């Protein structure tokens, strides 16, 4: 084998391994944080932001052109290989003022407000790290943090089913917390997370979330420091809690005087590897073609 062909083949092999590795880091196999760096989000600070919590994103700050670091699309997936496997893309926008954090969530769902009975529902939750040393989205033993070094996680849990308040309603969703060995009794804390939601029948949901930066509640994350606040998201579609799709780990950056953190999405890396692969194949084919011409 010629030297160039050997180099090409080796590069091909490395590319395949890299692609397989990236693929395995997604779709719920293992801790996806191993394959995806933490995504850093910096919310738009809008001192005079006032919200009408109606699930309609008519507030001008939601679409502000200055909010390029606080707007993103998050891919979520449930466990691959299961009958309930699905992928969903969640559009998120973060805005804050001196008192509140606001989050706009929008995603497609062709079975809105399901009437399936039991514990089947549509819904969205956020898990916010309070004090877990090795916080990730990989809860291999359920909602406990023992595997991550212990500590507590604030959980904001919104559900939608046929018995939920009607389209356009605003109310406090469940505000929970779990720790080293499991969930705390919900009665230990007040509900501090208010939502407004709308849906377009069998098309999409829009959720506006409002929470005070500080609640003085030990079972809530307190946005009272200039630091990164790690979180992940889960999304349910017509399933029970166990069937939900999850995001990899993200972090809200409240260090407003810090330098921008570089971030390379796993998809971009996959695309780069794919381009390398195609280039190598073309190169090898050209080499083979040239040797054939020479041998004529
Ligand atoms: Ca609104
Ligand atoms: Ca649904
Ligand atoms: Ca809580």
- Topology, number of strands: 15
Spatial gap, N to C terminus: 19 Å
Strand coverage percent: 25-35%
Number of helices: 2
Give the CATH topology of the largest domain. Immunoglobulin-like
Shape-level CATH architecture of the largest domain: Sandwich
Rough outline: globular
Could you name the ranges where pLDDT drops below 50 across 5 or more consecutive residues?
A: 14-28, 258-265
Q: What Rg do the Cα atoms give?
A: 23 Å
Indicate the structural class: alpha+beta
Oligomer: single chain
In total, the number of domains comes to 2
Please specify the SSE layout and strand pairing.
Elements: H1 3-25, E1 39-41, E2 44-45, E3 71-77, E4 87-96, E5 100-108, E6 121-129, E7 153-160, E8 170-172, E9 174-179, E10 182-183, E11 193-200, E12 204-212, E13 228-239, E14 245-246, E15 250-253, H2 266-295
Helix pairs in contact: 1-2
Bound molecules: calcium ion (3 copies).
The site of one calcium ion (CA) has 8 residues, from loops.
Write up this protein.
This protein has 296 residues and is of the alpha+beta class. 18% of the residues lie in helices and 32% in strands. It has two helices and 15 strands. It has helices at residues 3-25, 266-295; strands at residues 39-41, 44-45, 71-77, 87-96, 100-108, 121-129, 153-160, 170-172, 174-179, 182-183, 193-200, 204-212, 228-239, 245-246, 250-253. Strands 1, 6, 7, 9, 10, 13, 14 and 15 form an eight-stranded mixed β-sheet that branches. Strands 2, 3, 4, 5, 8, 11 and 12 form a seven-stranded mixed β-sheet that branches. Helix 1 packs antiparallel against helix 2 (266-295). The longest helix has 30 residues, at 266-295. The chain is globular. The structure holds calcium ion (3 copies). The site of one calcium ion (CA) has 7 residues, from strand 9.
